Amino acid sequence: GYQYTSATQTSADRLFHEWCSDVGIETPLATLETTPRSVAGRGVFAKSNIKQGDVVISIPENVVLHAYNAASSFPELGKRLLDTTLDFENTYHTQKNWWNRLFNRKRQEKFEFTDSSDLWQGTLSAFSLACLETEDHPWKPWILQWERDDPVQSLFRAGVTWRDEQSVIECVDKLSEMLPEVDKLKLRAAVEMRLGRLEELKEVF
Length: 205
Description:
- Helices cover 52% and strands 5% of the residues.
- The protein is built from ten helices and two strands.
- The chain has helices spanning 11-23, 67-73, 75-91, 98-102, 104-107, 119-132, 140-143, 151-158, 165-178, 184-204, and strands at 30-34, 42-46.
- Strands 1-2 form a two-stranded antiparallel ribbon.
- It starts with 10 loop residues before the first helix and ends with a helix.
């Protein structure tokens, strides 16, 4: 069954634990903690050493948030999102590797940061927002707890674009303090891609 976390547990953590128990999620070898050990301020951590074949988390199929499950709850929205995805794939059908994406700007493509493999982010965001508009959808308590607290999320909240070099550099400096083992150039590339992809997904959806 679900086991409660350590002293770092917050009221939000307790609500999440209760939701997990209610919907049948079991986490025999994992624990949710609000802690500075997580870049986002909250994370899932192993309770003990994990061996190959161990069940870390068990989630009933009907609770998993994916497009098929969500479309059964919101069929009209599902149809619109499927049409959007197919339209994008028919127009911009190639999936780009990191090298392709690096040179998209030089080729002046319409979508520099996004290909069809990224569309799930917009799709699940749309379904999640639809859940929040309902009274009692089983995913709603979980989705209400989606709140990050990290340098990249601060850029999203402020509406910063990937073109804002100073804001990006400041974000990279903060991330580098948390992740000193990661090269700053890689961090900057990741931040710019996430900001750019958000802009483009807004346009697509």
